[in-house]
Design brief:
Structural class: alpha+beta
Number of domains: 1
Shape: globular
CATH superfamily: Gcn5-related N-acetyltransferase (GNAT)
CATH class: Alpha Beta
Number of helices: 4
Order of helices and strands: EEHHEEEHEHEEEE
Number of strands: 10
Largest sheet: 10 strands, mixed
CATH architecture: 3-Layer(aba) Sandwich
Strand content: 25-35%
Length: 196
């Protein structure tokens, strides 16, 4: 193997945290995803992907998810409660390159305010570190304070130089809008550092 051929470390299909199970999605999850969060206008309000109008849209997401898992070390994960395996949301890693990935999270309304987003995001930080991601980032609408607090709790900081203009298709004023870019750098020693 040459120095340019680096073996990809694949992420596990399932990760357990104190209260959650994060697992790779399957096609059979479409109806549950649509019902739990993907079709809810309030849940999807600040997201960068359009609210699902039907289970067909959710199946398209699941096909996308399968392609991401084939191409990269990881992809989307569903968030389930450990005690009853009920579906409450999703998270994951979206790779920009082998060592840079974007993350995020979405939770069904009954799961809001219980710290599950922070727990899921910390699991993604730990996963990113374990599979060699050097730079992890997340985009957040400037008005979405709860999401900003979750990112800050996990050590992410706003990088003004990395600010982006993105589409938030579920807002009344849909179209290109500024987004905050939160960044967490993971050094070679496996520790997280804020910023670049």
């Amino acid at each position: 193997m040459t120095k340019f051929m680096v073996a990809l470390v694949k992420a596990p299909d399932e990760i357990e945290t104190a209260r959650l199970i994060l697992r790779r999605p399957a096609m059979g999850d479409a109806a549950a995803i649509f019902a739990a969060y993907a079709g809810d206008p309030e849940v999807t309000r600040f997201l960068g992907w359009p609210r699902h109008r039907s289970v067909h849209d959710t199946r398209e997401f699941l096909r996308f998810s399968a392609r991401e898992w084939e191409r990269w070390p990881a992809g989307p994960y569903l968030i389930l409660m450990r005690h009853d395996r009920s579906l409450v949301g999703s998270t994951g890693l979206g790779f920009q390159s082998r060592d840079a990935a974007v993350t995020g999270y979405v939770l069904a309304r009954p799961a809001w305010g219980h710290g599950y987003a922070t727990e899921a995001l910390q699991a993604m930080v730990d996963l990113a570190r374990s599979i060699g991601v050097a730079r992890l980032f997340a985009l957040c609408h400037p008005d979405h304070r709860p999401s900003q607090r979750v990112l800050e709790k996990c050590g992410f900081i706003v990088d003004p130089a990395a600010a982006r203009v993105v589409e938030f298709p579920n807002l009344a004023a849909a179209g290109q809008q500024p987004a905050l870019c939160y960044v967490l750098a993971l050094d070679a020693g496996g520790t997280a550092r804020a910023g670049r």
